[in-house]
Design a protein that fits this description.
The protein is of the alpha/beta class and 265 residues long. It has two domains: 6-204, 2-enoyl-CoA Hydratase, Chain A, domain 1, CATH 3.90.226; 208-254, Orthogonal Bundle (Lyase 2-enoyl-coa Hydratase, Chain  A, domain 2). Helix content is 49%, strand content 15%. It has a six-stranded mixed sheet with strand order 1-2-3-4-6-9, sandwiched between helices. A three-stranded mixed sheet has the order 5-7-8. Strand 1 (6-11) and strand 2 form a beta hairpin. The relative contact order is 0.11.
Amino acid sequence: MTEQILIREDIGAITRLTLNSPDSLNALSDAMLARLNEEFSALMHDAGQRVVILRGTGKAFCAGHDLKELRTKRQAPDKGARAIRDLFDRCTEVMLMIPRLPQPVIAQVHGIATAAGCQLVASCDLAIAADDTRFGVNGVNIGLFCSTPMVALSRNVSRKHVFEMLTTGRFIYANRAAELGLINKSVHSEALEQETMELAETIASKLGSAVRIGKRAFYEQIEQPIASAYAQTGAVMVENMLEDDTAEGIAAFLEKRDPDWKDTP
C-alpha cells in the first residue's frame, strides 16, 4: 500500500497536516497540491476543528516546486506554457485557501523552506521554526526568479529585505526570519513540536466563533484603505457582540467566573 503523501491527524480540535514526501523534500508536486487542496476544502466546512498545524517529514519542511515535474511540463510538445501556468494557478489556489480557512493555520517549520516552500510559510497565519531552519527564495540561482513566492513574502517582510532575498538567492536563518516578521518565533529544534502545540492549544481554547469571525475580518480589512477598514471591522464587532457566547463571556468576566460557552472544543 502506497504511503500517504499528506497525513491528516485530528488531535481533539487541532488538525495536524504533515507533508509526507521526504525523498523530494516535501516538494509541492501535482500530487501534494491536490491533497492540500482536498484537505483544505474539507476543513473549510469543519466547525469542529479550531486550529491547523502544517508540518513536514524528513529533512525539510518544504523545498518548493518539484523541479523534475517542472522540467517535464516545459518539454511537453505545444503545451509547455499551458501546463506550467496550470501548475502555478493550482499552487496559487492552495496558498489563497489558507487565509480563507476559518481555522488559524500554524506552520511548524524545520530544515529548509525554500521558494514555494517559503511562500507556504508566508501564507500561513502563524509560524514557528526550529532555530537551525533556513529560509530562501533561491530561484534566481537557477535563473528562475521567485515571482509567485514573493507575493506572500512581500506581505510579511519589508520590501527591501524581500528584494534582497529574491535577487541574491541567499538563505536566512530562523532567528533572522523572526526579526523580519516571516515567522513568529525561533525555538530549539527539540522544543519545536511542543511550542507549536502549545500555541495551537491556546488558540483552540478561545471562543471558536470569535476566532473565526476575527480571522475573516483580519484578512478583509488588511487590504483596504483605513476608513473602509474601520467601517468593515465596526460591522464585524457588531456581529461578534450579538453572539450569545460573547454575551456569556462578558457576563463571566464581570462576575469573575469562567465562561460557560456553548461553542467549546
